[in-house]
Write a structure and sequence with these properties.
heterodimer, A: 113 residues, six-stranded mixed β-sheet, globular, B: 118 residues, 11 strands, 0% helix
Chain lengths: 113, 118
């Protein structure tokens, strides 16, 4: 069954605005990752946050993790048209196989110039 | 960073034929490779996990005789869609992990293969 659920499913903003996407999951995890996918392309790894971390930054990206609520958020600040893509969270479940990632349904972000 | 390639990037085949998709790790040895399927505007669904030199492990609901996976070397895994049908049309993405001891987060993704069955 699908582990992660992102919301919103689609988000449209203007260039320069911030974009926030959320991800919820159901089981305990070792870590959570965010990926980006341009239309018809492969996945690009953005950031990983471990289960014992609460917040992580990478450039214009800020990820938070709340294990008590089993949720994570991805914030993209000062968005650009080039940020237009689908964003997925993926979890690596603790206690299970160390190799399997479970992906959420994704958020389609459109940044209008 | 580690690079994974897929070939072909796009393929169109007729119903009933078989098509092979290759996944290569270009600058590292991939002991474990993963095959995912993605429907339009949907998420990635793991199909199978392949380890070099052993049989692939398929996820529930994935027909192993339909989707043949071979991981004969540390840099190459192939997915063969046998007797393809239009419902097999999809975007297939592979990923590769470097060593058995590495964690799942060290997966490197290929660019994907768009399969269209007519």
């Amino acid at each position: 069954s699908q582990q992660g659920e992102e919301d919103p499913q689609a988000l449209s903003i203007q260039e320069g605005e911030n974009a926030t996407m959320n991800c919820s999951y159901k089981t305990s995890i070792n870590n959570l990752q965010w990926y980006r996918q341009n239309s018809g392309r492969g996945l690009v790894h953005l950031i990983l946050i471990r289960s014992n971390e609460r917040e992580k930054h990478s450039g214009r990206l800020r990820v938070t993790l709340d294990t008590s609520k089993k949720s994570s958020s991805l914030l993209i600040t000062a968005s650009r048209a080039a940020d237009t893509a689908s964003y997925f969270c993926a979890t690596d479940a603790s206690g299970g196989s160390n190799y399997k990632l479970t992906f959420g349904k994704g958020t389609l972000l459109t940044v209008n110039p | 960073g580690a690079v994974v390639s897929q070939h072909p990037s796009r393929v169109i085949c007729k119903s009933g034929t078989s098509v092979k998709i290759e996944c290569r790790s270009l600058d590292f040895q991939a002991t474990t490779m993963f095959w995912y399927r993605q429907f339009p505007k949907k998420s990635l669904m793991l199909m199978a996990t392949s380890n070099e030199g052993s049989k692939a492990t398929y996820e529930q609901g994935v027909e192993k005789d339909k989707f043949l996976i071979n991981h004969a070397s540390l840099t190459l895994s192939t997915l063969t869609v046998t007797s393809a049908h239009p419902e097999d049309s999809s975007f297939y993405i592979c990923s590769a992990s470097e060593l058995p001891g590495k964690r799942a987060y060290e997966q490197y993704f290929g660019p994907g293969t768009r399969l269209t069955v007519t």
